[in-house]
Amino acid sequence: MARLVDRRMGVFLAALFVLTVALPVASSAAAGELVPAYLVSLVGKYLCYALLAVALDLGWGFCGILSLGHGAFFALGGYAMGMYLMRQIGPRGVYGDPVLPDFMVFLNWQELPWFWLGFDRFWFAALMVMAVPGLLAFVFGWFAFRSRVSGVYLSIITQAMTYALMLAFFRNEMGFGGNNGLTDFKDILGLDLTAASTRTGLFVASAVALAAGLLVARWITASRLGRVLVAIRDAEERARFLGYRVEHYKLFVFTVSAVMAGVAGALYVPQVGIINPGEFSPANSIEIVIWVALGGRGTLVGAALGAMLVALAKTLLTGWLPELWLFALGGLFVLVTLWLPRGVLGALEDGLAQLRPARTGAREEVRA
């Protein structure tokens, strides 16, 4: 088995640790608020995106499963956390109902639906954050992979899946808030969501989750299982001919990837304060693919880096010239496809590799 933490992973985790420590300290009152406090939640959101990109890269980069529906798993994890946060509001809502969320009172619901039961407990919500996306991925993958659906056909049906879920969650009858979604959250685990300490805790939790996701993905890909996944990605029929049950390997990595996406969604929701059906949009799932392609497919670290870079660019550009963002995003994808086939991380590593011989030659000339 290869090293769990190679140089690439080590550098990224070290940088992540420095960011996790430095940003909350710099935004604290004790440090004179060197950076705005809102940056803690903003960067926390970026870290959730990075975990989502790692989840997609695990399946696409190492097993060739190009999913255009990972936004659905992200949104389902977010809804599971949102349901817990809604149950914590209690009588503090607009209508003062101790059990029913405000949107249910507004729609004249008389009792809490059965699928909302248990979400007043954090442990149950945390379990559903992983179980719901994981179960959906398992059932979907069971039928898709056993039917040997792959390539562009798999991408299309994953996109159809997330689009169908988006349409379903837009309906008020579903019991998830309709087009308004779930919002107006008050606290989590008894802690005020608007408090600086809570925002910092969520930011740190996002960083820890990203580090854990990277290590889990690295552990899978660096093992013998990972070598089989790469073989399936490069030559699926040959792997099947050698006796490997290809559908089992695909199903495993697809389910693990969905669970990671669900965790990312659960950490995202309390930091942004809302979850609505727009998160199921197929455009969001396509954007995740661009993150991974830009950062470097099949690198894990590159996927996380790509997600954070694109998210930062989106924040800046939508503030300056919002009408140009989609053109810029499309241009990024074309740029990566034509000139950065290994992504930003690959380009950086190639540049560093070219500098090393030049430095070595310069040292030898000096010695001579």
TrEMBL record:
* Bilayer topology annotation: Multi-pass membrane protein
Q: Does Transmembrane helix show up as a keyword for this record?
A: yes
Task: Answer yes or no on keyword Cell membrane.
Answer: yes
Q: Which UniProt keywords apply?
A: Cell membrane, Membrane, Transmembrane, Transmembrane helix
- Transmembrane stretches in the record are 38-58, 65-86, 122-145, 152-170, 201-220, 249-268, 288-312, 324-341
Gene Ontology CC annotation, any one:
plasma membrane
Question: Which parts of the chain are coiled coil?
Answer: none
| Subcellular locations according to the entry | Cell membrane
This protein is called what? Urea transport system permease protein
Q: Which GO terms describe its molecular function?
A: branched-chain amino acid transmembrane transporter activity
- The species is Meinhardsimonia xiamenensis
